[in-house]
Write a sequence for this structure.
């Protein structure tokens, strides 16, 4: 069967006699048993549950936490999805793969080839500014994007919903196209034009544009637990936490305030200190030691620190401290809310995580944090906002949408935070971010404080960032910019395309029940591998941009709680996610860029804990990564296989030897002529032996 046939096979799976009974309810119910899912378009989503407008006290109290539940309960409606089993099970992969409930080895060549040429998944291996994985990120909510940055999207395979049971059984059903799968612009959401007007009708207006009649997104995420124990639940720092103190830190820019060595030196208010203690933080991480005083001093900041080293608290704590000091102005139940702080991140799960951190640190204060993101009911986002919003955590698309609907005003914005800032400013999100800073009412960069955080900062992005930052911004580099976390033991093994599954199963069987994230390059492949692993009786779930938001959250929940110890993921889960006890990351496919690799393996080895990353290197497709891989490995003091070195030095990589190597490495603040540069270790002492950062030129 050729590739085309395989495609057809996926789109129209044979209904197999081995199709299992579809267990609908397990996947259609919210935490309280209600169904959180889509319904046929209703007249007004914003009206489908009266908003409670009572008992809001302004100061001295944490925000009420009971409304989300109620809203969810009132507005959830019965799912109308037709259940269809078949795909991914039994013979539904037809001749190519599954047969008698087994995936047959050696009969998969078409799949592998097909998925690597899968334009739906944006498989172009780009260097430099990356369009990679764009499909996997929260690109907002509109039906189409302007600027032609993104390929068209076929409502094909993604319509096949995958349900993976912990016991190894696998279900698939197909849902209608445009069902709000997450990642790209959805089918029924909108794009804000440069003028701030909506180019298409949004969900709130019926989600229809021209002939398109897409179902509305009605998913309302279950509210997070509200008891104090859950809010402050945290995992332990690892044995290497104290080693953070030896990492060299470089601060560049004029008049940087000195680092602090303890939380006490930050002079935060008592409530914040209590929350910090309840969160289990006793000692600052390097990025916190430097960033907190810089932000408290009112300076703009670009901060780069290794994955899992506490960047979130590094910006949240000083912003909150300022808000507590200055007081907040937004009042509840105004139709237009004017937050003091906007935090943007590229994926829904990440922004939700940041929100939970903001909620934790603002516990017991008058500051109210709100999260809004795509794939969820628009009316739900509005209801969250009108209850009062001081810190708005948002994905870019939903943010622009809500601004366009005039539910959020920007006049009061004092802090703009871009987490995963290099991603937020690259070709994927950069245009959206530019729109954001030029929105009517948004204070100019001189009037607001802008904070950019990431573990990777390509030079090009640093240059672009100038548009967002005051010219005297400070740059903090903890260790090697773009370097991998040294607590992750990295192994690269050569595995050809056709041996990958076999090798994966072998490794997973050795790993046993330890939590493992398996990264693949395409959404289709994520479905496929997850299904395959389930058939191998390895409890697996998956997360990618074609899954509905409800499914994505369910998958993450199942992985977090250990119900499914294996999570197959695309780039959508590469950045920022902080999941306890992820001991292994496996790159079944290497990503297209080295930055992506650094982020992916950073899902393990967090906060001083150790982890392992195993990457399958296929010389047929991954040679362009050999050089940067060798560098990342050696910088992190990992063994570099001789064969990899050989490939690295025999492979010509365009641009690698030049200074404009795209996103390969950026070691320092790209402002070449800064003064006042100081290099210190994280105990705060100057070091005359700071390592000269390896730059492009020194590489070859
Ligand atoms: N000072 C601290 N003491 C103890 N735990 C901390 C401290 N700072 C952060 N943590 C914890 O470390 C974990 C990782 O933090 P965080 O998610 O902010 O890392 P990050 O640097 O943003 O990572 P990534 O680059 O992957 O986004 C979180 O669980 C967080 O609560």
């Amino acid at each position: 069967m050729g590739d085309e046939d395989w495609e057809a096979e996926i789109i129209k799976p044979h209904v197999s006699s081995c199709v299992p009974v579809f267990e609908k309810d397990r996947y259609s119910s919210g935490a309280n048993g209600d169904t959180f899912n889509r319904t046929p378009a209703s007249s007004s989503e914003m009206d489908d549950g009266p908003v409670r407008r009572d008992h809001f006290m302004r100061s001295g109290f944490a925000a009420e936490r009971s409304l989300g539940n109620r809203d969810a309960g009132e507005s959830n409606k019965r799912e109308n999805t037709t259940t269809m089993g078949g795909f991914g099970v039994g013979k539904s992969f037809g001749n190519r793969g599954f047969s008698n409930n087994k995936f047959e080895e050696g009969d998969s060549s078409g799949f592998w080839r097909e998925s690597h040429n899968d334009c739906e998944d944006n498989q172009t291996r780009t260097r430099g500014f990356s369009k990679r994985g764009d499909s996997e990120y929260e690109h907002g909510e509109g039906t189409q994007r302007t600027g032609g940055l993104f390929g068209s999207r076929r409502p094909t395979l993604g319509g096949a919903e995958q349900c993976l049971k912990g016991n190894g059984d696998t279900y698939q059903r197909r849902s209608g196209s445009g069902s709000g799968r997450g990642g790209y612009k959805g089918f029924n959401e909108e794009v804000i034009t440069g003028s701030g007007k909506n180019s298409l009708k949004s969900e709130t207006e019926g989600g229809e544009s021209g002939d398109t009649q897409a179902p509305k997104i009605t998913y309302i995420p279950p509210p997070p637990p509200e008891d104090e124990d859950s809010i402050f639940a945290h995992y332990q720092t690892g044995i290497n936490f104290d080693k953070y103190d030896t990492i060299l830190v470089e601060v560049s820019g004029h008049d940087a305030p000195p680092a602090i060595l303890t939380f006490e030196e930050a002079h935060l208010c008592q409530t914040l200190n209590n929350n910090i203690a309840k969160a289990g933080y006793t000692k600052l991480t390097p990025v916190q030691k430097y960033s907190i005083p810089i932000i408290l001093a009112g300076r703009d900041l670009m901060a780069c620190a290794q994955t899992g080293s506490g960047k979130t608290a590094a910006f949240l704590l000083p912003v909150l401290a300022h808000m507590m000091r200055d007081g907040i102005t937004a009042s509840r139940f105004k139709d237009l809310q004017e937050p003091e702080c906007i935090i943007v991140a590229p994926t829904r799960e990440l922004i939700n995580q940041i929100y939970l951190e903001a909620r934790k640190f603002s516990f017991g204060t008058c500051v109210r944090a709100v999260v809004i993101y795509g794939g969820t009911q628009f009316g739900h986002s509005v209801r969250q906002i009108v209850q009062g919003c001081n810190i708005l955590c948002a994905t870019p698309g939903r943010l622009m949408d809500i601004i366009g609907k005039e539910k959020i005003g920007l006049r009061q914005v004092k802090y703009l935070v871009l987490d995963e800032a290099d991603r937020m400013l690259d070709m994927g999100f950069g245009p959206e971010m530019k729109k954001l800073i030029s929105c009517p009412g948004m204070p100019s960069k001189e009037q607001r404080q802008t904070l950019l955080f990431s573990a990777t900062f390509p030079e090009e992005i640093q240059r672009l960032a100038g548009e967002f930052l005051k010219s005297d911004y400070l740059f903090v580099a903890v260790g090697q910019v773009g370097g991998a976390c040294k607590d992750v033991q990295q192994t690269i093994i050569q595995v050809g395309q056709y041996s990958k599954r076999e090798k994966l199963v072998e490794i997973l069987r050795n790993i046993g029940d330890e939590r493992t994230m398996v990264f693949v390059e395409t959404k289709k492949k994520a479905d496929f591998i997850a299904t395959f692993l389930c058939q191998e009786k390895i409890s697996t779930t998956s997360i990618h941009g074609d899954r509905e938001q409800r499914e994505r959250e369910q998958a993450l929940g199942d992985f977090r709680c250990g119900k499914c110890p294996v999570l197959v993921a695309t780039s959508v889960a590469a950045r920022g996610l902080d999941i306890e006890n992820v001991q292994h990351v496996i790159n079944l496919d290497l990503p297209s860029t080295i930055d992506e690799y650094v982020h992916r393996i950073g899902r393990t080895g967090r906060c001083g804990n150790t982890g392992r990353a195993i990457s399958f290197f296929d010389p047929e497709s991954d040679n362009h990564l050999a050089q940067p891989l060798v560098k990342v490995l050696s910088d992190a003091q990992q063994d570099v296989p001789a064969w990899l070195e050989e490939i690295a030095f025999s492979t010509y990589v365009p641009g690698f030897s030049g200074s404009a190597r795209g996103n390969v490495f950026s070691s320092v603040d790209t402002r070449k002529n800064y003064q006042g540069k100081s290099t210190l270790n994280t105990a705060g002492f100057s070091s005359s032996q700071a390592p000269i950062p390896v730059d492009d030129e020194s590489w070859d």
Summary: The two ends are 45 Å apart (CA to CA). DSSP finds 21 helices and 21 strands in the chain.
